[in-house]
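Continuing the batch. This is chain 6 of the set; chains 1 through 5 are on the previous pages. Same settings as before, nothing changed between runs. Recording input and output for traceability.
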Amino acid sequence: MPAQEKPAYRVFTGEGKKADYGDILKASLKADVVFFGELHDNPIAHWLEYEITRDLYSEKGKDLILAAEMFETDNQLLIDEYLAGRIKETSFESEAKLWTNYKTDYKPLVSFAKEKGLQFVASNIPRRYASAVASGGFEALSGLSHEALNYIAPLPVEYDPELPCYKEMLLMGGEIAGPMAKNINQNLPMAQAIKDATMAYSVSKYLQPSQTVIHYNGSYHSDRYMGIIWYLNKYSPGLKIVTITTILQDDTDKLKDESLGKADFVIVVSSSMTRTYRSTVQ
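Output for chain 6:
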């Protein structure tokens, strides 16, 4: 007989214990930084991002700062001008480098920030610089102008190729073939690292005592407290950080062993859940 209930999602702690949305909110209210690791094409993740942002604002007010991987640091002026009412929405949306799913998945967050007068941080490195690292390693950044360097985490960026998140990427890159394959493979995790470092540095720049930053990013950037968090702990040690991740499972009744320890809270969504668009690597 088919199940009588089909919950849209279930919440577990990183240890695999059952939890709920209230537990996430309670922990987040005590945090300096909350990392919401999403699946970019998952509507449940996007809905919960909006809901937790709204509920955090109810308690924190103007002490809440929004930040996102989906916006690049060289678009910060555009975001600030739009939120302050200095430029029209049409100007912002035509000039900013917006993701394919901006209108459905991220615009509600930007609109909320505008309505409530909140800061919204464009945290990610401009993609042209990440692409340069993917092609030529960190050395590709050495000739950038002073102005360009303002958009990137301070150089040289510390890099540990043995971190599992980068080591796994190196292994995945092994599938690339061709004469340049070896260099490309080695550079891919470096490109990921410069993104993580820049996002972490962006958060550290804006965060002030008594404030809370909620940062929206692909789950891979914060899973297992690596990526952005590894760098943030170097730029601003001692912060209270809460992590959330989103995963898909056929059965949502129990957290699979492979996802234990991924985050403080794991949102488990059914694998059959509708997706908002055809997912691509961002």
